[in-house]
Every structure is written in structure tokens, then in C-alpha cells.
Write a structure and sequence with these properties.
The complex is a heterodimer of chains A (483) and B (451). Chain A has 483 residues and is an alpha/beta fold. Chain A is built from 14 helices and 13 strands. In chain A, 36% of the residues lie in helices and 11% in strands. Chain A starts with 43 loop residues before the first helix and ends in a 10-residue tail after the last helix. The model of chain A has no long low-confidence stretch (mean pLDDT 97). Chain B has 451 residues and is α/β, with parallel strands linked by helices. Chain B contains 13 helices and 15 strands. The termini of chain B are far apart. The relative contact order of chain B is 0.14. Classes of the chains: A alpha/beta (483), B alpha/beta (451). Chains A and B meet through helix 1, helix 2, helix 3, helix 4 and helix 5 of A and helix 1, helix 2, helix 3, helix 4 and helix 5 of B.
Chain lengths: 483, 451
């Protein structure tokens, strides 16, 4: 039932809004709203029940293993949430004077410093509100850098074909032409193709390392040399930073600008699709172009760096300072982990991924790029299974839901047919991984004996397979009272 | 080891299965020269007890003030149930609902949200949110240019939030879209439709219309919308969602209604929290839906013909269309929308109207009491909603400093944004302020101005 279907005219929660109607108004009559507002009229208890029940229809990290590749679904510590929601933090207005927010600003400043340290970059700005916005801001800085040198000929951004869709979409949003380059049979970027693609028109290269194929880009140093020699800059998409945190710093790999998905590596909640947060880090030569605001420390006092301090900044990309509350959660997380914990993230994420890969191989699954180490994730391909039985990667994904697991990422990266991109994250125990392998093994058996059972999955969710085609053809995007 | 459950035995068994001797060996494909040493800038780890102590100290340092600033972020009562339900693990720790069957909770909630926002704005359809109000406006500008096809110019009055204008400029200039700022009448604080009619602005793709505007003033939205349409341009409303409970919604402006409505969703149950996370909303007319960026949820049926919800029109999006997507936006502000949907359900249509009406009445009260003080005058004569610009006889910074000593964050000094206005302060009193709060403020102001 929809919340609107619980509604009864005249029902109200008297304690949740002013008890008496306002006694004055100076709004001209002709400006007043005449049409009703379609909000439900429901009691507080019914509202609580309705949304509690809705929540129970979700899979989540708190309730299920959620091995969604390239999303880093790790445990979100509860302390990060409760401490970020202390009343003083929640009630502070973003435009309140700096001296009423020194505690908050201290956290932000220290977070900037910690992120600089783990990424090897010269400067960090916390403003981007999501990974895709971090990318946009990063590419805008690349553009600003070239233009500040009077070089307007750099119109192309190079993107490997394995990249997230946001990479090419970002480059276009920034006014660049996208040049895609191929991946070789071992999962590395084709170095010869890269050499052929670079030139005086190259603004930069966007790279995810380890790549979305779940392998470390071995030639990264050489790629950096090729792009830099052509006068381009290197962009690091931090989507997979969890795999190498504390092992390799993007700055040491030669990257000029990076974004860090705090909602992945630094365990801020995914929230059903946001809010994310993706600070950007830059090398020395991009410092003047960083987005504002940034926190500075002068003596024992913290203050915002604004356009006055950074006249060449690409400007402001949010109404205030980005997703402050998300940044606080990330700060609390890194303080809980500390320097020892930072190293362990990538170690145990990699251990879990390689173990899971080995165990799935043993029970009969085909691994893509099987000659490589897994990073924090790896790919299973169901191409042979589909050819032999008609069961697809999507069917298997849906069957996993019946077994009580969120599905891995399906059909991404686009290069590998019938693929499942699996990322277990470091917070899962061996027992959980073993139970998952057991369920995957059961599904293999089902594919052999009862393929229709798998093809018709899921069977135990609140709904069965949903009609996407109908959804797009007969658009129904909001509820109508009399429909 | 914080948040890592592995025992020594687990690690040994796992390595044996992999065929590696040490965890270190799993990184053997990374060239040796790239391996970094210690992370010198990261402090040692704290226990939960220690971090709790630290954060309480930091929060204590910041304290709690009586806040009278609005300027795009508004303090409203938030029912306790809003965040208790929103932070349930099933909402808090789930991801974008790619697996629809295992995400019906989030998907149905977003569909309900879209319904509420479409109605509140008077538009046909709403998306599932944007990052914030400023980026929602920038995306609306891009959307208008994509749909308009012949012009790459956007008109934005200077009465639109100054930072929104900066953000729009930063984002759209990448695509060689020109932003033209329109002056306002310093008497009324409004954009005057008659002055627009008398000047030549050439071709443009859209006119942005704020309601209320940055000064809290209500614009002549009907005439502005009709003027934009008479020039074959789109009308983009940038609106306060609380105000929409009282004011004519963008979908009903002028003879045809605005084409796109965007705004900051924060007033709907989101705490101020130093600026974020908030969420932007975006709604539009039916014929523009395929140009809309961001996630959109549709209602459909399952194999048993039972109602269910899915992400739809995904052919617009980056994960399918890559370089040809309507935007690079991927996720949005799902959890904030969860809070807003619960907020709107708890206050209902009458509650939201009362919140809006009381915020307006309180600001009227505040302005009346302040205007009675020597050295304070209203800057503009236009009608206002829940915010007003006041001219002071002395430096605003000094007055605000005095108020702060009494625990009052007294408003926003407009000097940085509108230097021409002189000593001007923007004040706001929402429904959270009592009669005695307002009196205290007025007393403090009187004292500050006489000292």
C-alpha cells in the first residue's frame, strides 16, 4: 500500500506543527496557492509503521552480505553516525561565523590532512558531493590548468573502455571529446593504443586503478610517462582505492588529480543511493585551481579559504561546503581505524577477494582474467553457462537474492560477457564467504537440474521479476488520487 | 583489528586456499617501486570511547546558538521519527536500488517522494533528487539548453542566491553556455517584468525565476513566466519547498506554468549541519521528462501482475549511455529524500501550511520589531515570505559580533554578496522562534545599535 492510501481527510499530527494557525499574513491574496497539496494525512504511528515496513523490503549491509562490485559495501560503523549527529553539529548554520564552528572545522582540516597523507597529493578539497561530481571537478581543474597556460588546443580526454560510465559522461559534461582506448587480453590498458591516441590535443587520461576488471594496471608508470610527455594530465578515479589503500599512493603513481569516494573506502553510508562524498586531491601544479571552500589552519584557528585566497579557483560547486555530515562520518571512521587500520583495509579486502575467487573457481565457476591476482574484486563470467543452458548472469543474480545475498554487480564492465563483478570488502568474515560459496554451488546444481527455477528467480522477494519495459513505455512516475 | 573479523586461523586457511604464503604476496603484481611506506600523516587509532570523548569536546566547543540566518538553509522543527526511521540500517546501509526486487522499500519510498514533489511544485513529474539546490539549478539550465536547441544563453536575475549563480556559471560554462545576469529594482527588491520587456536580451533558452528570491521577496512570477514564454524560452522556477504550501506553485505560474521547478530540499526535515548533506529537487512538465537528469522511479508490475517499482528511463543515464547521457550524475541524495518523505508524511498538507504560515508571521513580527528601532529600516518594499533584508545605520559585522556574545547568530551580512547595498543584513525567523526569542533579538539589536 502506498502512504497516500493510508490517508484520511482531516487526520493530523498535532504535535508536529504549530498548534495555532498563524495570526498574521502580508502575502498578497493573488500569490496564494489555490490547488491542494497532495501530501498524505496519516497518523504518526501509521507513518512510522509504513516506513518501517518499507525499510524491511530492502537488502542492506546491516542485514545481508552485499558483494556489489566496485561499490565497496563495507560495514558502516554506528559510532560514525551517532557522533556526526551530535546536536551542536546538526544545529550549526552553514553561514554562521567561523568562530562558532571551530570544533567542526578542526575535524574537516584534519580529514584534509589525512586524505593528503594516504593519497600522496599536495592539496585536498572536501566539496564534491558524489563521485561523479568529484570527477567533474577534477576534469574542470585539468581544463583550467591548460587554459591558464594559454593552451586551448587540448580538447580530448582519453578513457579506457573498462571505465565507469561516469568517466566519459563527465568528460562530455566538461566540454571534452572522449577517446576510448582498448584493454588487452590480460586486462591492462593497451599501451600501444594509448601511445597512438595521445598528442597535442590530449587534455588528460582518466584511469581507475585497480581497474574495474579487478586487476592492477601494471603499466601505470609507463602510461603516466606517455601522457605527461604528450602534455596531458592524469586523473585517478578513486572508485577502487579500497584495494590499495596504504599500499600505493595515487600521487606516487604519477596522478595529477584524484577523487576519493568516501562512501566506499571511508565507509560512509550509501543511503539507498546517496549522499556520497568525493573529496578531490591535486598535485602541486593544480593547487591554484582547486574548488572552494577549503579549510585552512592559522595558528590554532581554522577558517575557510575562499575566492579571495584562490583567485584562479574553478569556483564553487555546491551551495555551501559539500556534504559536511558525510565528511564528519568519514573523519570519525579514519580516527577509529588509525594508521594501522588504514593498511589493513586493503590487505583484508584483497585477502577476502582472492579467497572468494579461489573458492568459486574450485566449485566450478569461470573466472575472467584468471591468470591475474584479484584486487579487492574479481569477475565471474557465465558465458559458457549461458551458451549451454540459457541461464544468464542476471538469472543467477536474482537467484542469489532468494538465497539471502545481494547480487554482485551484473553486466559491468561491459567488456566481459555475462559477468558478475564481485567485491566482498574487508569487513566480511570467512564464514560469510564460505556460506556464499555454498549458495553459489547450489545454484550451479540448480542450473543443471532445474534451470527454470533459476530463470524464474527471484521467488522469495516482496515482488517477482518486474517488467522494466512496461515501466518505460507506460510511464507512471507519480500516484494520482483517482487513477 | 577494528571492523575486521579475521582470526589468525582464518587468515592461514584462506591463504592456503589461495596458495599464497602471506597477505603481502597478494600484492605482488604491483611494481615494487610504487609500494609506499608508512602513512606519516595518519594518527594512531582510537577506541569508540576515545573518539566519543573527542567528538563531544569538539561539538561542545561549537555550542548551540539562536539562529536567525536563512539564506538558502532554514531551521525547522524535525519530528523525532524522521531520523530514527531514516537511520534504520535497511535505509542507511543499502545502495542504489539496482536490484529492484531486493530494494522495493527504497523504490516505493522514492515513488511516493516523486508524487509529493510533483504535487508541491504543481508539475507533472519529479526525479528522485539532485545533490543540492545549486546543482539542481545548474542541471535545469543544462536541461533547458538541451531542449531548446537554438539558444545557449540563460538569463538569471541577481535576486537568485549568489552562490547558486556561481555554481551555475561554473558548471554550464564548460559547455559554452552563456549566463546573463539581470538587474533588480532596488526599491522593491524584485525583477521588474516591465523593465525586461523594454530591454533587448536577444535569444535565450531559459529565464530563471526565484520564489521567494534571495532577499526573501516574492517575485511577480506570473508576468515573468509569461514573458519567458513569449520569447520562446523556458521558465525555470527556483523555489522554497516550505513556501509552496502557501504560494502558487511553479506549475501554475502565468498562463502556461513554469517548465522546470528546482530548489533546495533541506527545509523538509534535513538539519542545518554546516551545509550538508542536503538534497536538490527537480520537477518538470511531461514533455521534458526524457531530458531530465538523475534517477527516476516508475511503477510497474511483476510476473504475477502485482505492483512494483523500478528505476526507469535509464537510457538517459551514464551507466547505459556513457558519453551520451543527459548528465554524469550517478547516485543522488537518497537518504536525505528518505528523511524528507517521512517529514512530509508526518506534517501533512495542513502541517506544512502551518509551518510556512508561522514562519512568515514570525518574520513579519521580527521585521516590525526591528524596524521600530532607530537605525534599522527595510531595504525593499516588496512582499516577503520568511526572510527580509534590513539596512542598518552602522557596520553589520559589528552588530552581528555583539549579538553573538548574547548567543544569537543574527543574520547574514550582505556586504560580500551585494556591496552596493551598504550596511545590509538578511534575517529569517522560522516557526522555531518563539515570541520571546524574537523580543530578545530585538532587544539585543537595540542595545547593539545604541552602544
Amino acid at each position: 500500500m502506498l502512504i497516500f492510501e493510508h490517508s484520511r481527510p482531516g487526520r493530523r499530527n498535532y504535535s508536529q506543527s504549530p498548534t495555532k494557525p498563524a495570526d498574521k499574513s502580508a502575502i498578497p491574496q493573488h500569490m496564494l496557492r489555490k490547488s491542494p497539496v497532495l501530501l498524505p494525512e496519516v497518523s504518526e504511528m501509521d507513518t512510522v509503521r509504513h516506513f518501517t515496513r518499507l525499510s524491511q523490503k530492502n537488502f542492506s549491509i546491516d542485514t545481508e552480505f552485499y558483494p556489489l562490485g566496485s561499490c565497496t559495501m563495507k560495514y558502516n560503523p554506528r559510532a560514525c553516525n551517532s557522533l556526526a549527529m551530535l546536536p551542536q553539529f546538526l544545529s550549526r548554520h552553514p553561514l554562521a561565523p567561523e568562530d562558532t564552528g571551530q570544533g567542526f572545522l578542526a575535524c574537516m582540516y584534519e580529514l584534509q590532512e589525512i586524505l593528503k597523507s594516504v593519497t600522496g597529493m599536495a592539496g585536498v578539497s572536501l566539496t564534491p558531493m558524489a563521485g561523479a561530481q568529484g570527477e567533474l571537478i577534477g576534469v574542470m581543474m585539468i581544463r583550467a590548468y591548460h587554459e591558464a597556460r594559454g593552451d586551448f588546443a587540448r580538447t580530448e580526454i582519453i578513457v579506457p573502455d573498462a571505465a565507469h560510465g561516469t568517466n566519459p559522461a563527465t568528460a562530455v559534461m566538461c566540454g571534452f571529446k572522449v577517446v576510448e582506448i582498448a584493454t588487452d587480453k590480460d586486462g591492462n590498458v593497451d599501451l600501444e593504443a594509448l601511445k597512438a591516441a595521445v598528442g597535442p590535443q590530449t587534455a588528460g587520461l582518466m584511469l581507475t586503478n585497480p581497474s574495474t576488471l579487478g586487476v592492477f594496471e601494471k603499466n601505470v608508470a609507463e602510461m603516466s610517462r606517455v601522457v605527461h610527455q604528450a602534455g596531458g594530465l592524469l586523473y585517478y578515479d578513486g572508485a577502487n582505492l579500497n584495494a590499495v589503500l596504504g599500499k600505493v599512493k595515487p600521487g606516487d603513481m604519477g596522478f595529477d588529480v584524484i577523487h576519493i569516494n568516501l562512501h566506499k573506502t571511508f565507509s560512509t553510508p550509501h543511503g539507498g543511493g546517496g549522499p556520497g562524498s568525493a573529496p578531490v586531491g591535486v598535485a602541486e601544479r593544480l593547487l591554484p585551481f582547486m574548488p572552494i571552500p577549503i579549510v585552512a589552519k592559522e595558528g590554532e584557528t581554522y577558517r575557510w579559504i575562499t575566492e579571495k585566497d584562490k583567485p584562479q579557483s574553478i569556483g564553487r560547486l555546491s551551495a555551501h561546503m559539500g556534504n559536511a555530515g558525510v565528511l564528519l562520518r568519514a573523519y570519525i571512521y579514519v580516527r577509529l581505524l588509525g594508521v594501522e587500520g588504514m593498511h589493513r583495509i586493503s590487505e583484508y579486502a584483497t585477502l577476502n577477494a582472492n579467497y572468494l575467487m579461489a573458492e568459486l573457481r574450485k566449485v566450478g565457476f569461470q573466472i575472467a582474467y584468471d591468470n591475474r591476482r584479484a584486487s579487492h574484486e574479481f569477475i565471474v563470467t557465465l558465458k559458457d553457462i549461458k551458451d549451454n543452458t540459457g541461464v544468464t548472469a542476471m538469472n543467477l543474480a536474482k537467484r542469489l537474492l532468494d538465497k539471502g545475498y545481494h547480487a554482485p554487480t551484473t553486466y559491468f564492465p561491459l567488456l566481459v560477457p555475462e559477468c558478475l563483478l564481485i567485491e566482498p570488502a574487508e569487513t566480511e568474515s570467512k564464514e560469510t564467504l564460505d556460506a556464499f560459496v555454498q549458495s553459489m554451488k547450489e545454484i550451479l546444481r540448480e542450473i543443471e537440474l532445474q534451470p527454470d527455477l533459476v530463470k524464474g528467480a527471484p521467488h522469495s522477494m516482496p515482488v517477482r521479476k518486474l517488467d522494466d519495459v512496461k515501466a518505460a513505455r507506460e510511464l507512471d512516475l507519480s500516484w494520482k488520487p483517482n487513477a | 583489528m577494528p571492523f575486521i573479523p579475521h582470526t589468525k586461523e582464518d587468515v592461514a586457511e584462506m591463504l592456503a586456499s589461495i596458495g599464497a604464503k602471506t597477505i603481502e604476496e597478494l600484492f605482488d603484481e604491483i611494481p615494487k617501486e610504487l609500494i609506499s611506506g608508512q602513512l606519516s600523516g595518519v594518527p594512531i587509532g582510537l577506541s569508540e570511547m576515545e573518539i566519543t570523548r573527542l567528538m563531544m569536546e569538539r561539538a561542545g566547543k561549537d555550542g548551540i546558538y539562536q539562529n536567525f540566518i536563512g539564506a538558502g538553509a532554514y531551521e525547522h522543527h524535525i519530528p523525532a521519527a524522521v531520523w530514527q526511521i531514516t537511520t534504520r540500517g535497511e535505509f542507511y546501509s543499502s545502495y542504489t536500488p539496482y536490484q529492484a526486487e531486493a530494494s522495493q522499500g527504497t523504490l516505493q519510498l522514492l515513488y511516493e517522494y516523486q508524487t509529493m514533489m510533483a504535487s508541491l511544485t504543481g508539475m507533472d513529474v519529479s526525479n528522485a533528487s539532485m545533490y543540492d539546490g545549486a546543482t539542481a539549478l545548474a542541471e535545469a539550465a543544462l536541461m533547458a539548453v538541451r531542449s531548446h536547441k537554438t539558444s545557449r544563453r540563460i538569463l538569471i536575475p541577481k535576486t537568485v542566491h549568489p552562490v547558486y549563480r556561481q555554481v551555475v556559471r561554473a558548471i554550464v560554462s564548460n559547455q559554452k553556455i552563456e549566463v546573463i545576469e539581470l538587474p533588480f529594482c532596488t526599491e522593491t527588491g524584485q525583477v521588474l517584468p516591465e523593465s525586461l520587456a523594454h530591454s533587448d536580451h536577444g535569444d535565450f533558452a531559459a529565464l530563471v525565476i526565484p520564489q521567494p528570491n534571495f532577499f526573501g521577496i516574492l517575485e511577480q512570477v506570473d508576468a515573468l513566466t509569461d514573458w519567458a514564454h513569449s520569447k520562446n524560452a523556458f521558465a525555470i522556477g527556483v523555489v522554497n519547498p516550505t513556501a509552496l504550501a502557501l504560494l502558487t506553485p511553479p506549475g501554475e505560474w502565468g498562463s502556461k506554468g513554469a517548465d522546470i521547478a528546482v530548489g533546495e530540499g533541506q527545509p523538509l526535515g534535513i538539519p542545518l549541519s554546516s551545509g550538508g548533506p542536503y538534497f536538490g529537487f527537480m520537477a518538470c512538465k511531461n514533455d521534458l521528462v526524457r531530458q531530465m537528469p538523475g534517477r527516476i522511479i516508475g511503477r510497474t508490475t511483476d510476473l504475477d501482475n502485482k505492483q512494483g517499482f523500478v528505476l526507469t528511463l535509464q537510457a538517459r543515464e551514464q551507466h547505459i549511455r556513457r558519453s551520451k547521457a543527459t548528465s554524469n550524475i550517478c547516485t543522488n541524495q537518497g537518504l536525505m529524500v528518505t528523511a524528507a518523505t517521512i517529514y512530509m508524511s508526518l506534517v501533512g498538507p495542513e502541517g506544512l501550511r502551518r509551518v510556512a504560515a508561522q514562519s512568515h508571521a514570525n518574520t513579519l513580527d521580527l521585521v516590525e520589531q526591528l524596524e521600530a528601532i532607530k537605525g534599522v529600516k527595510r531595504m525593499f518594499s516588496g512582499p516577503f515570505f520568511h526572510e527580509a533584508a534590513l539596512g542598518l545605520s552602522t557596520s553589520v559585522a559589528n552588530v552581528l559580533e555583539e549579538l553573538k556574545l548574547k548567543g544569537i547568530v543574527g543574520g547574514l551580512d550582505l556586504r560580500e554578496y551585494y556591496p552596493d547595498l551598504g550596511n545590509a543584513v538578511l534575517v529569517c525567523a522560522t516557526e522555531t522562534k518563539t515570541a520571546s526569542d524574537i523580543r530578545n533579538y530585538a532587544d539585543a539589536m537595540k542595545h547593539a545599535l545604541s552602544s
